[in-house]
Structure formats: C-alpha cells, structure tokens
Design goal:
Blueprint: H1 6-44, H2 49-57
C-alpha cells in the first residue's frame, strides 16, 4: 500500500498552490468539502435541502393574496 508522508503532502500542496493559485485553491477546497458533506448525507439517508424545501412548498395551496392598505 502507498504511504504518503508529510514531505509528500507538502510537495502536493505546493504544486497545487502553484497550479491554481491561492484564491482558486480555497474555492476548490470549499467545493470538495461540500461534496464530501453531501455524499455523507446521501449515505446516511438524510434528505437534501432541495427536497426539504420542495416538501414544504407542496404542503398545500397558498392562502388568499392580501391587498396593501
């Protein structure tokens, strides 16, 4: 099995920093974290935010519109 030590991780981070730059690297890390979080939610069976808001919206018809005074 391949073992990656601290030196190798530092080299990978340095190359990624040179390729993408500091601004884009933080955006990539944020997107990767969100993807992992959504994947874990999917494994645990939690409904995602879109289906929750869809369920809330389809609960019933909206009330009558109100007229401004």
């Amino acid at each position: 099995m391949i073992r990656i030590g601290a030196e190798e991780l530092f080299l990978i981070f340095l190359l990624a920093l040179l390729l993408f730059g500091p601004g884009r690297l933080t955006a990539i890390a944020r997107e990767l974290g969100q993807s992992v979080r959504e994947f874990r939610r999917g494994l645990m069976g939690e409904p995602d935010l879109a289906s929750r808001s869809h369920d809330r919206d389809s609960a019933g018809p909206p009330g009558p519109p109100t007229l401004p005074s």
